Amino acid sequence: MKTFEIQYISRYYEDKNYYSKTIKANSEEDALKKFAKFFGIKNYIQMFEPMFMWEDGQWMSSFKCINEVYEIDCRQCNGSGKTQINI
Fold it and tell me: pLDDT tens digits for the chain (87 residues)?
Protein backbone atom coordinates (compact mmCIF):
# COMPACT_ATOMS: atom_id res chain seq x y z
CA MET A 1 0.00 0.00 0.00
CA LYS A 2 1.31 3.45 -0.95
CA THR A 3 0.92 6.80 0.79
CA PHE A 4 -0.40 9.84 -1.08
CA GLU A 5 -0.57 13.49 -0.03
CA ILE A 6 -3.50 15.36 -1.56
CA GLN A 7 -3.20 19.13 -1.43
CA TYR A 8 -6.16 21.47 -1.63
CA ILE A 9 -6.95 25.15 -1.18
CA SER A 10 -9.74 26.52 1.03
CA ARG A 11 -11.17 30.02 0.66
CA TYR A 12 -13.43 32.13 2.86
CA TYR A 13 -13.96 35.60 1.39
CA GLU A 14 -10.42 37.06 1.15
CA ASP A 15 -8.81 34.36 3.31
CA LYS A 16 -7.00 31.52 1.56
CA ASN A 17 -5.39 28.54 3.29
CA TYR A 18 -3.46 25.57 1.93
CA TYR A 19 -4.13 22.13 3.37
CA SER A 20 -3.11 18.55 2.71
CA LYS A 21 -4.53 15.17 3.60
CA THR A 22 -2.49 11.98 3.70
CA ILE A 23 -4.22 8.85 2.43
CA LYS A 24 -3.02 5.26 2.16
CA ALA A 25 -4.20 3.54 -1.02
CA ASN A 26 -3.07 1.10 -3.69
CA SER A 27 -3.12 3.70 -6.47
CA GLU A 28 -3.48 7.41 -7.10
CA GLU A 29 -7.03 6.83 -8.36
CA ASP A 30 -8.01 4.95 -5.17
CA ALA A 31 -6.55 7.77 -3.06
CA LEU A 32 -8.58 10.36 -4.96
CA LYS A 33 -11.73 8.26 -4.54
CA LYS A 34 -11.16 8.05 -0.76
CA PHE A 35 -10.49 11.79 -0.59
CA ALA A 36 -13.68 12.54 -2.54
CA LYS A 37 -15.74 10.26 -0.30
CA PHE A 38 -14.32 11.95 2.82
CA PHE A 39 -15.49 15.38 1.59
CA GLY A 40 -18.80 14.16 0.11
CA ILE A 41 -17.80 14.67 -3.52
CA LYS A 42 -19.94 12.34 -5.63
CA ASN A 43 -17.54 11.91 -8.55
CA TYR A 44 -13.79 12.34 -7.95
CA ILE A 45 -13.26 13.22 -11.65
CA GLN A 46 -15.01 16.56 -10.97
CA MET A 47 -12.02 17.66 -8.86
CA PHE A 48 -9.94 18.06 -12.04
CA GLU A 49 -12.34 20.66 -13.48
CA PRO A 50 -10.72 24.12 -13.08
CA MET A 51 -13.76 25.81 -11.53
CA PHE A 52 -14.99 22.91 -9.34
CA MET A 53 -15.24 23.69 -5.63
CA TRP A 54 -16.84 21.86 -2.73
CA GLU A 55 -18.19 23.16 0.56
CA ASP A 56 -16.10 22.46 3.63
CA GLY A 57 -18.18 24.06 6.35
CA GLN A 58 -18.22 27.78 5.51
CA TRP A 59 -15.10 27.43 3.37
CA MET A 60 -15.06 26.63 -0.34
CA SER A 61 -12.29 24.24 -1.30
CA SER A 62 -10.62 23.21 -4.55
CA PHE A 63 -8.20 20.44 -5.49
CA LYS A 64 -4.57 21.45 -6.04
CA CYS A 65 -2.48 18.29 -6.60
CA ILE A 66 -1.65 14.77 -5.49
CA ASN A 67 1.83 13.36 -4.77
CA GLU A 68 3.08 10.00 -3.69
CA VAL A 69 5.07 10.37 -0.47
CA TYR A 70 7.42 8.09 1.44
CA GLU A 71 7.07 7.83 5.22
CA ILE A 72 10.15 7.65 7.42
CA ASP A 73 10.74 7.73 11.17
CA CYS A 74 11.22 11.26 12.45
CA ARG A 75 14.81 11.89 13.58
CA GLN A 76 13.89 14.88 15.73
CA CYS A 77 11.54 12.88 17.96
CA ASN A 78 13.76 9.77 18.12
CA GLY A 79 11.50 7.71 15.88
CA SER A 80 8.31 8.21 17.91
CA GLY A 81 6.61 9.90 14.96
CA LYS A 82 6.52 9.79 11.18
CA THR A 83 7.34 12.40 8.58
CA GLN A 84 6.68 12.38 4.84
CA ILE A 85 9.03 12.97 1.95
CA ASN A 86 7.89 13.54 -1.63
CA ILE A 87 9.02 10.87 -4.04
Answer: 999 999 999 999 999 999 999 999 999 999 999 999 999 999 999 999 989 999 988 999 999 999 999 877 777 766 556 666 665
- CB-CB contact of 38 with 9 (8 Å): no
The range of the structural domain enclosing residue 37 comes to 2-86
pTM, entire model: 0.82
When divided into structural domains, the chain yields a total of 1
Q: How far is CA 19 from CA 6, 22, 70, 76, 84, in A?
A: 8, 10, 18, 23, 15
